[in-house]
């Protein structure tokens, strides 16, 4: 009797024949729970079930694994679990064709949004959190398509 390994979708692995592709690695507490969120809620394709889990999400890949201690290729660096809260310095940004449809569909599938979509002039956007608390922006370009940009914040102005 042979033990089968985890499922692998070889055709969708992020392994370019030339150049490179960009992927996003996130540290997760429960791989199965995160895999289900990115595949079932957001509609991604599971490419590799674990070690690391890889989900193809539209034209990018989300790689996820638990944190861990330093390794020979990253000596002195520990990969730590994300501590969700009221601050963040990085987040996934999903650009969609129809934000209202995505908001309804993903809400029905269990996504928890911070607010409904809000029209900000240049775009309509809202945010949700994944099971580990990572912030995900969902935005639809609107005014920016005709040159209407977002207003600058005072801290963005020169001087």
Automatic annotation (TrEMBL):
InterPro entries found in the cross-reference section: Glyas_Bleomycin-R_OHBP_Dase, Glyas_Fos-R_dOase_dom, VOC_core
Top-level taxon in the UniProt lineage: Bacteria
Domain VOC: 19-141
The protein's name: VOC family protein
């Amino acid at each position: 009797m042979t033990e089968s390994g985890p499922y692998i979708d070889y055709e969708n692995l992020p392994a370019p024949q030339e150049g490179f592709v960009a992927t996003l690695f996130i540290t997760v507490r429960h791989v199965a729970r995160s895999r289900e969120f990115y595949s079932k809620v957001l509609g991604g394709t599971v490419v590799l079930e674990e070690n690391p889990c890889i989900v193809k999400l539209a034209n990018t890949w989300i790689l996820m694994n638990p944190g861990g201690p330093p390794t020979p290729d990253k000596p002195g660096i520990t990969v730590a679990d994300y501590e969700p809260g009221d601050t963040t310095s990085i987040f996934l940004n999903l650009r969609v064709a129809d934000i209202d449809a995505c908001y309804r569909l993903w809400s029905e599938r269990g996504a928890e949004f911070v607010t409904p979509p809000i029209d900000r002039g240049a775009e309509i956007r809202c945010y949700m959190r994944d099971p580990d608390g990572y912030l995900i922006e969902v935005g639809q370009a609107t005014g920016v398509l005709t040159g209407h940009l977002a207003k600058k914040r005072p801290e963005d102005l020169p001087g």
